């Protein structure tokens, strides 16, 4: 069956709003290392990895063996009404790595569910439905997480279970404060935070939720230290800080294991998902005991933290720690960033190169006025695909190329990707 035939079947039974990449979508049927093969036999270097999910790569023996071992027991699922050894072992490791004192962990099936759980904990703990979030943010497709998403393209409903106010600071490239030095930028954003609390809330806000590097928003981030400065204000009001680490966790940023550590602050909770399972569905929350234990009613997660996903996740963490993939993300990320900046020197269409480690973005603009250029972005994404490179797309205006390859990326593969991107930009001339 051709991709075109499969696409016709997709359109007949799947929702219209379920977006696909490319004018002629492809099916991925095989993978090894950092490369995948589509349903018509073409091979690609994968620089988006299931939206940052296949963090280690494809066909990793240690992870596959851990899953096969669990399957061989005949037990694929028991639910959280029973003890689950791998779940407990994984929770112990995440609690240790979190830096949160005496941390506790709750597992879910996805980042959306993780953020929904964190909202539940925070609003219950503070007995308030008031929430602060960042402009240009994305936290999931659930009812509560859509409500705290500050990106119109992903806000499917204006209805909300929470009262949300949005802050300045996370998307610097188009911020009204963009031309300020870092210290002045941080001060302006802190002043905005104080103004928002004083004028648009009743004061007893439950939490602020932030992405250290905004994912769907185009890998944008503020200067390091902004969220530590925010935390000083939050502490005056007893407002909790939640770090959404769904895309920034597990060493992907290179310099730190968790994205929020760049701001030298320990949050009250962190949410996680994506790369932890290397393709297996898992998410969760790691938080202080006071926050995690704030629920006064029974709760559980039928499939969250099941034996299969936790076996895969435990093997994934062990692999990335044993192979020091955080250091590799820093090295290969620096190489890729240098290559992108070299392209930017030649092509004014590449308006901004940003991100950390193997979480990098290229914002595409119209030369002269730096207006967002979604059409050229789509063209460049297609041209890269034609040459054997898969990259993501995002940003508030759909004009950002997102690159987040598996953290096992090699130096030759990075060089190959840079050359493909350069060739793709050459088609603009």
Could you please describe the fold and organization of this structure?
This protein has helices spanning 3-13, 49-52, 61-72, 85-98, 111-126, 143-147, 182-200, 226-237, 289-292, 307-322, 325-346, 374-386, 411-426; strands at 28-32, 35-38, 43-46, 104-108, 130-134, 163-167, 207-210, 240-244, 269-272, 283-287, 350-356, 359-366, 371-372, 389-390, 392-394, 400-403. With 429 residues, the protein is an alpha/beta fold. Strand 7 (207-210), helix 8 and strand 8 (240-244) form a beta-alpha-beta unit. Helix 11 (325-346) packs parallel to helix 13.
Write a short abstract of this structure.
This protein has 429 residues and is of the alpha/beta class. The chain is 38% helix and 17% strand.
Task: Provide key terms for this protein.
429 residues, alpha/beta, 7-stranded mixed sheet, 5-stranded antiparallel sheet, 16 strands, 38% helix, 17% strand
Q: Could you name the ranges where pLDDT drops below 50 across 5 or more consecutive residues?
A: none
Largest sheet properties: 7 strands, mixed
N-to-C span: 36 Å
Shape by Cα distribution: globular
Query: What would the average pLDDT be, to the nearest integer?
Result: 97
- Indicate the percent of residues in helices: 25-40%
Helix run count: 13
Number of strands: 16
* Spatial sequence of strands, sheet with the most strands: 4-10-9-8-7-5-6
> H/E element string?
HEEEHHHEHEHEHEHEEEHHHEEEHEEEH
Helix/sheet category: alpha/beta
Beta-strand content: 15-25%
Radius of gyration: 21 Å
């Amino acid at each position: 069956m051709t991709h075109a035939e499969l696409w016709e079947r997709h359109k007949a039974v799947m929702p219209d709003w379920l977006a696909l990449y490319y004018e002629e979508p492809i099916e991925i049927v095989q993978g090894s290392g950092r490369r995948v093969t589509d349903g018509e036999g073409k091979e690609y270097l994968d620089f988006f990895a299931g939206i940052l999910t296949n963090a280690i790569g494809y066909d990793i023996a240690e992870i596959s063996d851990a899953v096969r071992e669990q399957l061989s027991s005949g037990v694929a699922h028991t639910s959280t009404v029973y003890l689950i050894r791998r779940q407990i072992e994984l929770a112990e490791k995440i609690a240790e790595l979190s830096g949160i004192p005496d941390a506790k962990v709750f597992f879910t099936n996805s980042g959306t569910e993780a953020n929904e759980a964190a909202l539940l904990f925070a609003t219950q703990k503070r007995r308030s439905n008031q929430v602060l979030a960042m402009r240009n943010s994305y936290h999931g497709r659930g009812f509560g997480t859509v409500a705290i998403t500050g990106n119109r393209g992903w806000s499917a409903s204006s209805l909300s279970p929470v009262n949300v106010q949005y802050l300045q600071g996370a998307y610097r490239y188009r911020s009204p404060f963009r031309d300020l030095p870092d210290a002045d930028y941080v001060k302006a954003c802190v002043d905005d935070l104080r103004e928002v609390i004083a004028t648009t809330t009743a004061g007893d806000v439950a939490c602020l939720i932030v992405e250290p590097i905004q994912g769907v928003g185009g890998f944008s981030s503020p200067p390091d230290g902004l969220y530590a400065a925010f935390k000083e204000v939050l502490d005056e009001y007893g407002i909790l800080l939640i770090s959404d680490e769904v895309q920034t966790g597990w060493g992907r940023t290179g310099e730190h294991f968790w994205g929020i550590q760049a701001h030298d602050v320990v949050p009250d909770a962190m949410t996680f998902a994506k790369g932890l399972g290397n393709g297996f569905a898992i998410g969760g929350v790691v938080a202080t005991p006071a926050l995690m234990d704030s629920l006064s009613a029974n709760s559980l997660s039928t499939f969250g933290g099941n034996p299969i996903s936790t076996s895969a996740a435990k093997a994934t963490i062990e692999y990335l720690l044993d192979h020091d993939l955080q250091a590799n993300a820093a090295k290969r990320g620096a190489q890729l960033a240098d290559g992108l900046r070299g392209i930017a020197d030649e092509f004014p269409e590449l308006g901004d190169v940003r991100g950390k480690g193997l979480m990098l973005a290229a914002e595409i603009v119209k030369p002269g006025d730096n207006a967002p250029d979604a059409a050229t972005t789509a063209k460049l994404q297609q041209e890269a695909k034609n040459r054997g490179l898969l990259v993501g797309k995002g940003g508030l205006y759909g004009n950002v190329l997102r690159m987040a390859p598996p953290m096992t990326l090699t130096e030759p593969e990075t060089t190959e990707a840079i050359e493909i991107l350069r060739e793709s930009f050459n088609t603009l001339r």
